[in-house]
Each structure stands twice: as C-alpha cells, then as structure tokens.
Design brief:
- The complex is a heterodimer of chains A (about 400) and B (about 450).
- In chain A, about 55% of the residues lie in helices and about 20% in strands.
- With about 400 residues, chain A is α+β, with helices and mostly antiparallel strands.
- In chain A, strand 3 and strand 4 (about 120-130) form a beta hairpin.
- In chain A, helix 2 (about 25-60) packs antiparallel against helix 9.
- Chain A starts with a helix and ends with a helix.
- The longest helix of chain B has about 40 residues, at about 310-355.
- The two termini of chain B are about 30 Å apart.
- Classes of the chains: A alpha+beta (about 400), B alpha+beta (about 450).
- The interface between A and B is large, with 90 and 89 residues.
Chain lengths: ~400, ~450
C-alpha cells in the first residue's frame, strides 16, 4: 500500500513537471534561450581561453631563436675562432624531432663575395646553416621572392644590404672566396630582417665548412624553443645537462619579453573570461528569477489543494534543474562549435574542442538555473487566498 | 495619463521592475567592462611590447658592410661611415614624436686596456698558475667599448628636454650596481669581461688612448660602477659614455648605430605597401597611421644620410600578437554582449507575457493596439535607461579593477562606451519585448479577462 502511494506520488510529480514545462511554449522558449545563451558563452569562452594561451606562445615564434648554444668559455673575442664539433652535438639532433624545440647549427666565416657582374667583390660574413629549416623558423624574415626553393642544391640567401652592395638579385650566381678555397652558389632569395642578417650571406652548412676548412665544426647553435616561459627554462636546463661541454644560454631580449607578455596576456584573458562568466551567470539568474516569479499563481493553487511546502518547492527546483540541463546541453554544444569557429577567425586554426569544458558548462548552467529558482522559496509563505483574490 | 500609467507601474510593483533592471544592469556592466578593457588593451600592450627593445635601427647609408661575428667587428678601424650626433633631437620633431618612447645612439670602438692587478690577489689561484696565464692575456688585452647614452637629456626645439638612454631601448639589460653618470669617468662592465679581468664594482679600468704619435699615449681611468648582464655580446664589452667612446675612436660628435623604440600600430596589408607607389590620398592616410614603416619613413626624412630599417623580428612578432589579442578580446566582448542581450531580452519578454491581463483590460477599456504598444515600449525604454546607467557605473568600477590588476593602470572612462551601452540597452529591451508585444497587440481582450 505504501509503495503504491509512493509510486503514485512519483508519477504525479513527473506529470505535473512535464505539464508545467511544456504548458507555455513561449515561456519555455524564453527560458531555454536565456539558459542556452549563458551556457554557449560559458563553453565558448572556456574553450577559447585554454586554446588561446597555447596559440599565443606559438606566435612567439616570430621572435626567432630564443636559446643559444656556444662553445664553453667563449667570449666575444673568441667566438669567431672557437668552434664546436658538430658530431658532439648529435644528442641535440634527437631533440630536434620535437617540434617545440628545433636546433639549427651555424658556422660563421668571413669571405670575399663576388657576383658575376662587374661590381667589385666585398668582404662579408658567411653563415653556413640548414637553410630549409631556417626559412621555416624565421617567419619574420621577408624573402624576395617568397618561398624560393626547397634548397636541395647549393643555393644561398643574401641579406638586403649585401645584395644592394653587390647589385645582385635572385637567380644570379655568387662566388665565395676564402684564402685559396672557392665555392659558388645560386642566389635563391634576398632577405630583409632589420638585424645583422641584412649584411650576411647564408649558405648551406657544408659549403661554409668547406670554405672555412672546418669540416664537422659549427660556431653556434640557435635553438627555437616553443611553449610557455616556464617550459623554455626547463628546456634550457635540460639541454645544459645533456651537453655539459658547451654553454647554453637563453637570449634574454626575447625570453624575458616573452615571459612578461605571456603573463600579461594570460592575465587579461583569465580576468576578462572570469568576469564575463560571473556576470553572465548573474544576468541569466536575474532573468530566470523574473520568469520564475510569474509562477505565484501556481504556487498558490498547489498550496490550496494541500501541497506541502517542501513538495511544491521540490517541484519547482526539479523543473529549474531540468530546464538548466536542457539549456546547458544544447547551449554548451553550440558554444563549443562557436569557439572552434572563433579560434579559426583569430588564429587561423580551429580551436581544439576540449571535452572537459562540456560537462563543466552544463553543470554551471544547471547550478545557475537552480539558484535562479531559489527565490521561489519566498513564495511558499504566500497565502493562497490572497493570490486567488488577485492581490499582490 | 500616459505618464501616470508608467509612473504607477514603477511604483506599484517595485520588486518585479527591480529584477528586470538588475538583469539589465548586470548585462550592461559586463558589456561596459569588456568594452573598456578591449578599447584600452591595444595601447597598454604596445607599451608592454617595448620590453622587447627597439623596433627600429638606424645606420649610416654609406656605411660599409659590418663584418660582425658574435659582437666583434672585423672591419678595419677607420672604414665605414658615421652619423652626426647633433641631428638626434630632430627625431623628436617628426610627426610621430609622441610615439617615439626612447632612442639611444651607439658607437663601438676597440681599445687596449692597461693591466691593473686586482687588489685582492688570489694567492691560491696564483700558485695554481691560473692568474699567470690570465695576466699574460691581460698584458695585451683588447676590449670592445660600447659608447652610448644613459639617462641623457636631449634638448628639444620647444625648449623642453627628453630623457632617454640605452636602459629604455634595451630594458632587458640588467645592471648590478648602477649605471654610470655621463659626465663622470665611469663605466659599466659586461659580466663575462668582468669575470675575465677580475673586476668588481668599485675597481678601476684603465683605458689607453692612442695618439697620432705612437710613442705618446693618454690613459683614462674609469671607475667601474656596475656589472652588466645582457645575455648577448655586450657581456664581453665595457659600456662607457658616448662622449668618451667618441674621444677614444677620434670621431667627436658622431655615432654609428641608433636604436629607436616606438609605439606602433600593427601592420596590415595596407601598411606593407611601398609608399612610393601610393596615390597622394593613400600616402596621407598611410603616413597618418603609426605603422612602424611610416615612422621609419618620417625618421629618414629628418636624418639625412641615414638608413632606417625595421627590426622585423620585433616589429613582426609585436604586430601579430597585438592583432591576435585584440581580436580575441573583441570576441570576448561580443560574446558577453550577446549573452547579456539574450538574458535581458528574455527578462523583458517575461515581463510582457506576464501582463497579458493588464493589456486585455486596457484594450477592453478602449485603448488601441498602438497606445498599448507605446505604453509598454516607453516603460521598457525607461527601464533600459536606468538599467544602462547603473550597468555603466558598475562596469566602469569593474574595468578599473581589472585594468589596475593587470596593467597597474585603470582604463580611461570613455563617454563613447556610455553611448554604446545606452543604445545597446534600449535595443536589447525593445527587441526582447517586440515579439510578445506584437502578440499582445493582437490579443482579444475577452478570453484573457475570462482568465483563459
């Protein structure tokens, strides 16, 4: 008998709930719109925020290399002459498989550069390196023409100032002379960087090594480490441990600025997103409370036919939770899709949907909906009679 | 009568109106805060970006190619061209002078220093033979001197002075101790060089000035007042006042390289075009935007014989990141506006739906649909105005808090934002109530009054 009554009660509860949810389509639509919008914004911002912090660190790539590996104890005076063994750095090469940490060796030498035309030869700094890797890693460099070749043969890049002095353009051929040794290469592109690179010629590492008669030698390795400032520090320490014979030091100009900018930017993002989320929740809550207040008549009626205060309240809270769930499930899904689109608009790459964001935003929406219905508890004190008489 | 109805509505049911107004002001507070922060963030961030150092470098046009490897120039001493120091104040006379935050001229020269045994001679090291080899090096040591400005006052044409120096163009240079005073015989020594020479703050560095006749030489005794750490080639050099470097290099009043730090607008497609191919009106628009290239162009106009180059690594990265962060913040702003608008709309829709009986009664008493619509719309607008103003005030407080938390500087309150917010509040409430209002206008009073 008892179980029978309880199941009766329960089915009645659900029936009342169903009816009150679907009774007024206009109202349902309004509520779902408010809750769904809140959930969508929550999901979109949370997803975008996580993604944006990561993307900003990839933008730091434009700053070029941020870690230098030089021979130990080399001062300025000796950098030109002291070199490291390329093979001694073989441990570094395995590191290069990691896309967040690319090491490119350089060998510097001074040589006479002559072009095919009548302009006299000039002394210039020759940098031997892996051109294909370098072009990819220096997005700030302006090449003329862009993406000149795949650097499969003996091709070189020449800095803008050097090219002007030699009066050469892409496709001309250059002769390099150091002592008795000569090399020649085809000029693939002229590069402008605004830095010392403008005065230099970049040739394949092997060419520079032959020219300087220093096979298997490099003067400096520039490392491009991506990620957060903390990760860069860890990489520097790890590299130093791996390679005890050389000196590993971060290029302070960029690492320091990166750390500063990263903390600022992530600060802005976190703060704005947090504030927007809190206020969005409050805003949805205020709107929902307004909607809920209109149910005073229902509360009065239920009390009049003998509904206990607790049951009435439970009914309304269940309704709010149900609506919150529905609005959250739909809204959060829309929000994640939106954030992917937004990621594409800002960074050119669709933001990766993070699954953890979905349950969080749904849960937040349900909580907001229940909190919004909570002022209804004041309605349980109203006297049914006055409601029926239409008094306020 | 119209006004009385509206006034009555507000006084009779304060709580209901209060809730709608609360939703509205919260929504508008979000919008205000997000708008103020995103309007401000560009300027604040470009100031932060100056921690990357100079974004323009100026060298003599006629200069020979520097043969510089790891900070040492392999050029013969007297080759190359120089620029006159006396032209420098002109930089602050260009159209973009307010955007130029700092500049510092550089003159590098290589000198011989006189061996001075460190006062705390380490006996143990001496015994191990370490110092002996060091002093052997010291006897003929050549040191790179970098002459520059530190805390230099540049007199400007309008009578004021502009203070600038290397510490501002290269903020990542850390000095242990202090920077030198330009008029005194002081210097700052790079950390590696200091280690090599055993120099500490308070020691003396004696520099030999070579004269025309090789047998006569003049010495300058410089007090070491700081140890410099840059992480770059300057760690191996000594930094001295520009005037001293000029005297030692026998290039009075001249410099070789000038770093300029300028606040810029991120470059877009238009900025990258060559100014020589532009039409006059395009050129005007181009030179009236603080693109790094147009600042470079205007500096080149005032410094004859100079070659102004954009340090692409700095300028490019700055432009990209600034654009990204800005778009991102605009998106956040837009999203919050949308959420606020929907919530407010929902709230005002609910407040109209609930007043069906009232509307029915008014129509039964002979009010036309237009009158009813006007009445409700006027009410909503009044609410929007009140809610918008409160929201604006709340949002400003919030933006102040956010701004000073992140950047240490609160954003300027802008009247533009107030206008946008009020228009937005009015639009949102009207839109939110438009649909229920249209339905209300078509209500048949009879069934409503019967309670159906």
């Amino acid at each position: 008998m008892m179980t029978d009554r309880r199941s009766n009660n329960r089915s009645m509860f659900w029936r009342v709930l169903r009816r009150s949810v679907f009774a007024n389509r206009g109202r349902l639509f309004v509520i779902l719109l408010a809750l769904g919008a809140g959930a969508a914004v929550t999901a979109a911002l949370l997803n975008l925020q996580v993604d944006a912090k990561r993307r900003i660190t990839t933008e730091f790539r434009s700053f070029g290399p941020n870690v230098l590996i030089t021979p130990r104890g080399s001062g300025v005076a000796s950098t030109a002459t002291s070199v490291m063994k390329e093979s001694a750095l073989s441990k570094l090469q395995s590191e290069a498989e990691n896309p967040d940490c690319v090491a490119i060796p350089f060998l510097y030498a001074v040589a006479k550069v002559a072009s095919g035309n009548s302009t006299p030869a000039v002394d210039a700094v020759i940098a031997g390196t892996h051109l294909d890797l370098l072009e990819n890693r220096e997005p700030a460099w302006k090449l003329e023409p862009e993406h000149p070749s795949d650097y499969s043969q003996d091709e070189c890049l020449v800095g803008l100032k050097l090219a002007n002095q030699l009066r050469v353009r892409a496709e001309s051929s250059l002769r390099l002379k150091s002592g008795q040794r000569t090399e020649s290469c085809r000029l693939a592109a002229v590069l402008a960087s605004g830095g010392p690179e403008d005065d230099q010629a970049f040739v394949p590492l092997a060419v520079a090594q032959r020219l300087a008669d220093a096979s298997d030698r490099v003067s400096v390795v520039k490392v491009f480490v991506g990620g957060t400032p903390q990760k860069i520090n860890e990489t520097v320490n790890a590299l130093q441990q791996k390679l005890p014979d050389v000196e590993v030091r971060p290029i302070r100009q960029f690492t320091e600025a990166e750390a500063r900018l990263y903390s600022r930017i992530s600060g802005i993002l976190t703060a704005t997103v947090a504030v927007v989320l809190i206020l969005t929740a409050l805003c949805v809550m205020a709107a929902m409370t307004n909607v809920a207040m209109e149910r005073r008549n229902d509360v009065g009626l239920m009390k009049a036919i003998g509904g206990s205060v607790r049951r009435v309240l439970r009914l309304f809270l269940a309704e709010a939770a149900l609506l919150g769930l529905a609005g959250g499930v739909i809204g959060a899904a829309i929000g994640i899709v939106i954030s992917m689109g937004l990621g594409k608009a800002v960074f050119g790459v669709a933001a990766q949907p993070r699954l953890i964001v979905y349950p969080i935003s749904v849960a937040l929406t349900v909580i907001v909906a229940i909190l919004a219905a909570y002022p209804l508890r004041r309605l349980v004190h109203i006297r049914p009679a006055s409601v029926f008489r239409g008094e306020e | 009568m119209f006004l009385r109805l509206i006034a009555d509505n507000f006084t009779r049911r304060p709580r209901r109106k209060f809730l709608t107004a609360a939703a509205l002001s919260l929504g508008m507070a979000v919008a205000t805060a997000a708008l103020s922060v995103s309007l401000d963030v560009g300027d604040r961030l470009s100031e932060e970006f100056r921690s990357l150092g100079a974004n323009l470098v100026i060298t003599p046009e006629a200069d020979s190619l520097p043969l510089e490897i790891g900070g040492v120039d392999f050029r013969p001493a007297n080759s190359g061209a120089y620029l006159p120091e006396s032209d420098l104040p002109k930089i602050k006379s260009v159209f973009w002078h307010n955007n130029i935050t700092a500049f510092a001229p550089i003159l590098e020269t290589s000198v011989t220093i006189k061996e001075t045994p460190p006062p705390n001679y380490d006996i143990a090291a001496l015994a191990s033979g370490k110092i002996i080899s060091n002093s052997a090096m010291l006897a003929s040591i050549k040191v790179q001197l970098v002459g520059t400005w530190v805390g230099h006052s540049v007199p400007l044409a309008d009578g004021s002075t502009f203070e600038t120096g290397i510490g501002r163009t290269n903020p990542w240079w850390h000095v242990q101790g202090r920077w030198f005073v330009e008029s005194a015989n002081e210097c700052v020594v790079g950390t590696h060089l200091a280690k090599r020479l055993g120099l500490k703050v308070g020691d003396k560095l004696t520099v030999i000035e070579e004269k025309e006749r090789t047998d006569v030489s003049d010495t300058h005794e410089l007090g070491v007042v700081g140890i410099l750490e840059t992480g770059g080639s300057e760690d191996e050099a000594a930094i001295v006042p520009l005037s001293l470097a000029q005297a030692l290099a026998k290039k009075p009043g001249q410099y070789r390289k000038l770093y300029v730090s300028a606040l810029t607008k991120p470059e877009d497609e238009f900025a990258r075009r060559d100014p020589r191919t532009m039409k006059p009106d395009e050129l005007e628009r181009w030179s009236c935007s603080p693109y790094v290239s147009s600042i470079a162009y205007s500096i080149k106009q005032v410094l004859p014989g100079s070659d102004v180059r954009v340090i692409r690594r700095v300028a490019d990265g700055e432009g990209k990141i600034l654009t990204r962060v800005r778009t991102l913040l605009w998106l956040v702003t837009f999203a919050s506006l949308l959420a606020a608008a929907l919530a407010v709309g929902a709230s005002s829709a609910a407040s109209v739906i609930e007043r069906r009986t009232e509307i029915g009664l008014m129509k039964a008493l002979g009010a036309g649909s237009g009158t009813v619509g006007w009445l409700l719309a006027a009410e909503q607008l009044l609410l929007a105005f009140v809610g918008g103003c409160i929201g604006y005030a709340l949002g400003l407080l919030l933006a102040r808090f956010l701004g000073s938390k992140i950047f240490g500087v609160p954003p300027e309150p802008s009247l533009l934002v107030l206008g946008v917010i009020l228009v937005l509040a009015a639009g949102v409430t009207l839109l939110g109530s438009a649909l229920p209002l249209r339905r209300a206008a078509r209500f048949d009073p009879a069934p409503i009054l019967r309670g159906e």
